[in-house]
Write a sequence for this structure.
């Protein structure tokens, strides 16, 4: 078993047994279900303004899970052992990001279907919204790895993570919202895929650099 | 694997005029020593003297402000050593066996969890989550990394902390066997571990 696979399996198992898997999805669904209540019974208003709000809820749900991603490894000494692996730290960070996408990102993307319907998105747009969320989650997590790594040594670093990563959440939110309102869906999905690939490729490199400094 | 010991290469550790700082404070100044295959280096010093800092520098976690740390005969230093520090690197939610399997994967070696469990006397706890282990059992689990992946240089930071008499005997036996195989042990200690050290370094004077 390679170090990449071992790290992926361990993180999936830890997030799953720790109850960390369902909480973000619950957060996401809870936040989106509150929107119709807050906007009132005007259906036209909800149809016009509702669907893009899945992206706000998704971004916040990811943010809430980032704080402990590397902090726990730093505090319990796991990071030191990761530095002694034959696999580069960048690959181990990528494995952790991939685990998070599987346990947190993908379930939120799937929960995007009922959430979008509740927010009066046209039913034919729902598959595109789910796909866009799956891509957007990869972009969020790729960027989030860097924020989580930079703040791993900071107590209550959650707010700091938000300040660091939220500006980088803007592109996926802009193009994701375009998908949610049915505006140039194919083009927006392509750009989201680009965001996801870019963040997945560069995020682990930057995060590993930050983690090496934290280990000192 | 060939040769007399289990290691393909038997690196020796060479430290040349090493100076280490934490913040602005110099903890280790101009330290030089050589640990040949089979050496057991005891690092002594009071609380805060710099024992942990020295070990972390040897492990490569901390950049020296001056001097060099060389592993003669090793291609990749980080794959040459084990570091067992104050932190046991355990996850409360994962079982003892899950830890052993994860480490085997992380260090890129074949799984040998049953051997590790029996040598560290953890067989009865194999399926328990790490959060219910006692301090001493958690320490044994951390030390089991030494058995899982054969690596020639061991950096141990107060390895006997929380261990009972039987645990100390197991640790002493591990160290003796490792030295007989041509491995190097550098251990920060407050009380003698059992095996007679080949040299003693005192830091913080």
């Amino acid at each position: 078993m390679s170090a990449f696979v071992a790290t992926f399996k361990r993180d999936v198992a830890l997030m799953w047994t720790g109850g960390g898997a369902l909480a973000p999805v619950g957060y996401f669904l809870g936040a989106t279900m509150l929107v119709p209540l807050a906007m009132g019974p005007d259906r036209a208003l909800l149809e016009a303004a509702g669907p893009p709000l899945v992206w706000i809820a998704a971004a916040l749900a990811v943010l809430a899970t980032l704080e402990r991603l590397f902090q726990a490894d730093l505090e319990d000494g796991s990071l030191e052992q990761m530095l002694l692996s034959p696999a580069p730290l960048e690959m181990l960070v990528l494995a952790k990001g991939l685990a998070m996408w599987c346990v947190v990102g993908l379930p939120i993307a799937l929960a995007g279907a009922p959430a979008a319907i509740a927010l009066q998105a046209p039913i034919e747009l729902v598959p595109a919204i789910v796909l866009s969320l799956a891509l957007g989650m990869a972009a969020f997590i790729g960027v989030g790895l860097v924020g989580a790594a930079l703040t791993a040594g900071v107590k209550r670093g959650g707010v700091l993570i938000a300040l660091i990563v939220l500006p980088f959440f803007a592109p996926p939110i802009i193009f994701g919202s375009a998908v949610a309102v049915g505006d140039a869906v194919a083009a927006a999905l392509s750009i989201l895929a680009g965001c996801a690939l870019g963040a997945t490729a560069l995020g682990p490199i930057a995060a590993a650099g930050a983690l090496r400094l934290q280990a000192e | 694997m060939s040769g007399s010991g289990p290691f393909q290469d038997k690196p020796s550790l060479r430290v040349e005029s090493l100076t280490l700082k934490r913040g602005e404070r110099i903890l280790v100044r101009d330290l030089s020593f050589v640990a040949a295959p089979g050496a057991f280096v005891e690092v002594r010093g009071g609380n805060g003297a710099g024992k942990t800092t020295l070990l972390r520098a040897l492990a490569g976690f901390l950049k020296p402000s001056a001097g060099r740390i060389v592993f003669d005969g090793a291609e990749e230093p980080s794959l040459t050593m084990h570091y067992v520090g104050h932190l046991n690197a355990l996850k409360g939610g994962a079982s003892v066996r899950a830890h052993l399997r994860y480490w085997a994967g992380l260090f890129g070696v074949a799984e040998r969890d049953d051997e590790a469990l029996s040598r560290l006397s953890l067989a009865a706890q194999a399926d328990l989550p790490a959060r219910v282990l006692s301090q001493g059992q958690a320490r044994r689990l951390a030390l089991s990394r030494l058995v899982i992946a054969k690596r020639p240089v061991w950096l141990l930071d107060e390895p006997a902390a929380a261990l009972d008499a039987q645990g100390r005997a197991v640790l002493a036996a591990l160290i003796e066997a490792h030295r007989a195989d041509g491995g190097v042990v550098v251990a920060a200690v407050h009380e003698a571990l059992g095996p007679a050290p080949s040299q003693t370094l005192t830091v913080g004077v």
About this structure: The interface with chain A takes residues 56, 59-63, 76, 78-79, 81-83, 85-91, 93-94, 98, 101-108, 111, 145 of chain B (CB under 8 Å). Residues 165-180 of chain B form the longest helix (16 residues).
